[in-house]
Every structure is written in structure tokens, then in C-alpha cells.
Amino acid sequence: MYSATAFPVVAGNDMAIPPGTYVEGRIDALTRPHWLSQHAEFQLHFTKLVFANGYTVELPDVIEDLKSAGSQAVSRQGAGQQPAAGANANATADIEAAVARVYVEVTSNNDILLDNGAPIEMFLQAPLTLEADAVAGAVRGSRPLQLSATKSSTRCVPTPGTPGTPDTVIPGTPATPDTVIPGPPGFPDTVIPGSPGTPATVIPGTPGFSGTSCPGPPIVTPEPSGKDVHTKTVMLTSAMQVGGTPLTAGKYQIRWTGLGPTTQVEILANKKQVVQAPARVVLLGTKSLADEAVPRTNADGSSSLESLQFAGETFALFFD
Hints:
Layout: E1 2-4, E2 9-11, E3 14-17, E4 22-31, E5 39-50, E6 56-58, E7 62-65, E8 73-75, E9 92-95, E10 98-105, E11 123-124, H1 132-141, E12 168-170, E13 179-181, E14 190-192, E15 201-203, E16 219-221, E17 229-236, E18 240-242, E19 245-247, E20 250-257, E21 262-269, E22 272-283, E23 292-297, E24 303-309, E25 315-318
Antiparallel strand pairs: 1-4, 2-3, 4-5, 5-6, 5-10, 7-8, 7-9, 10-11, 10-16, 12-15, 13-14, 17-20, 18-19, 20-21, 21-22, 22-25, 23-24, 24-25
């Protein structure tokens, strides 16, 4: 998948990514619509930036050590190292550096199309290091992206309809009344029966056929039109804090709306809210192996909840 930035990205007072910078990416997952959801969802991650002057920046995944104080991060380009014996497989999070979720408003009966020119919001989930001189040269040579109409990639070909033919009606003949000849006195009248009419003959016409039309451009949004409420259950094996509220060890229900990049998370115990705190929804490069609440050690020796990972999911909640 190839795209281009439509708006500049600014760091401080300097332009870091000028408009017109090319972005290479991949589609990780597609969730089709169903009877509860009238939209399809694309999960994307981006792998490379190509600036106007040819300056190229790789966007590798980041392996974040969730068990060490400060959560040190290393590039995934150093992959190949095996975890130490006895290490927890979930002690790290494979965080994709730049991601996007794209929603296409369709029904389960429609084809799913992420068309040319569709708007995509890219989110950086990890720090991006750029060479100032190379970026400055790209800024001088960049041109604003022309947001002109693009040719749709749909293969739909409209067909004209055909008119039908009306029925052919052959009129029938009218009926004739009885003829009555009065009889002489003392004798009955003479009745000559009339003839019945014949009904009209209808020869049916031929039905017409309606043409086919192509649907309009798909509606692409960074968030679904409805509110997707997510619920999970996690077990805290030790006491820790969330947003300054202490939580004891035990089972908790986690509830939030949407998939980021930020959201408000409710933590409930026995269906009663204990605390509500903001969190980042971080997309992962691999599925988590198990549910896990990862603590962070504070300067005073206390523990705070750093992240929540969920078995089989490619996202995690991070509490800053």
C-alpha cells in the first residue's frame, strides 16, 4: 500500500514531515461488517517514509521491555535474540511505530473497497528520529499534495435499463338484448333471446428491465460511526495504582469505547466503577499470548499499572 502525506507534521516550530512525502505501508487485518456493525475495519502499519529529495526513513517495530523500570525500547531490527531462560513471554510488547485504523461504511452485502484517494490518519506510536539537514532539503524541494479527484478503482460498469411493452387489448363485442314480440290478447309475448357479448382479449406486454448503477464513493472515516464498546476481564496479581487510585489484587472488569489512539478506560470490581483513567490504545505487531497487567515501579517504590495486554489481541492499553 502506498500513500502520501496531505498535511505537514511539525515538531516545535520546525517542519518534520512535509506534505507530499510518500509513505509505504501494509494492511495487517480486515474485519468485515456483520449484523451488529455496519462498517469494515482495516488495520494498517507503515514501514517507510520517502521524502521529496530521496531521503528514506525506515519505520521498524519497537520491542518495548515492559518489566524493566522506565520501559526501555529497542528496534525490532535487532530481532533474532531469544528470551532468557525463565523469562516471561509477555515481558515485551512488539509495538508498531506508525499505524492507522480505517473504517469503511458498508453493509455485509457490499463489496469492501478502500478506494484511491481515501483519507487515512497515521499515528506515530514511538519516537521518530530524523536527520535535520536531510529534512530541511526535503522541505525545500517538497510541493503541497494536490488533493484532486482520483480515479476510482471499482470495476462496476453501469448498464442501461430497457422499457417494457404495454398490453395489447382487442376489444370484445357488446351483448344484444332480448327481442320481445307482444302476443295477441290472451296469448303470451314471444321472447327472442339476445346474444351474450364477448370479453376483450388482452395480450400481455413484455416487462422492462431496470439498469444497474454503481455505488457512490465509500465513506472512509478514522473512527466508526457507532460507538464500539470493548469489555475485558483481567486479574491483578499484586496491588498497584491507576490514576492515583490504589487497586488491590483481584479480578477487575475493563471497559472502554473505541480503539484509539486515546480513550477513557473504566475499571470495575463487581460491576461497580473503581476508577476511570485515560489510556493510549497501542497497536502491536503480534498477538499477545495471554492476559497480563504489567506494573511500573515508581520513584517512591510503589507500583502503578503501566499496560494491559489481552490474549489473542493485537492492541494493548498503556497508562502514562
